[in-house]
Amino acid sequence: MRRKEKEYLKYIAPAMVTMIVLSVIPTIFLTIISFTNYQLGWDFSKTEFVGIENFVRLFSGADRDFWHSVFISLAFMVLATAVELVLGFLTGLCLNSWEFKLKPLVIGIMIIPLVITPSIAAQMWKLMLNSEYGIINHFLNTLFGLKVTWLSEKMAFWSILMVDVWQYTPFVTLIVYAGLRSVPDEPYESAAIDGATRIQELFYITIPMIKKLVYLTLLFRVIDCLKLFDVAYVLTQGGPGTATEFLSLHIFRMANAQNGLIGRAAAIALVLLVLTTCISKFLIKRMRKEEAV
Known about the structure:
The two termini are 31 Å apart. This protein has a single domain (65-247, 268-292), classed as MetI-like (MetI-like fold), CATH 1.10.3720. The chain is built from twelve helices and no strands. By secondary structure, the chain is mainly alpha-helical.
């Protein structure tokens, strides 16, 4: 048994070393920096250990923008994942139910948003959402006489949400569609003999059999939403004001040349890491419960 373990070890060793170098060591360094007053450009000899002072500032309200960033990040996570799961599930269900010759073409077109780099997609949407010469306002003005300031303080959050839904709903659709294709026909045939309706088949056969995949999709999207940066930065840079300053953008603003407070930024990043880990652990626990049933 030990000989087999040694054989396995030599195959997984490169992956383990890569993970340690790219994940574990930076996380340890981040944790150490979060307990210091280190600032951008400082020599490390000037750095002082300040204990939990950076965390006290966050949770005592001294950093006023922190809780705002937490709130809009969590709100974005809930709304984006909910909308994408519903739309993706319905689209996947339609693709699985309907057979037509152009289905491969439809799936290919649907994947296009998913393969576009987020920063490029955001730049494209920034042009389309421009209140003066954007194509969306052009059609709204032509058809309904409307002119919407999409990147204003009231609309910026919803515009970023719209872009995220557009880009990542196909991801949910593909996973759901793949899951539906793997469901065997026998349960449906038995249900049809028993006189089950389509709605009953959906809730008692389809959803339970792909629930594990749904949780897996939810896990991926929750993590992506919590660490959202590129789309928000390109579209609004966290503005107007702090209207769309998600946690990742708040970390960036705290750490960049404008403030350079690396120690405080590291503390916020550590909070984001813990938040993401806790939510991920909860979803993984739910997945394992579904496997056990």
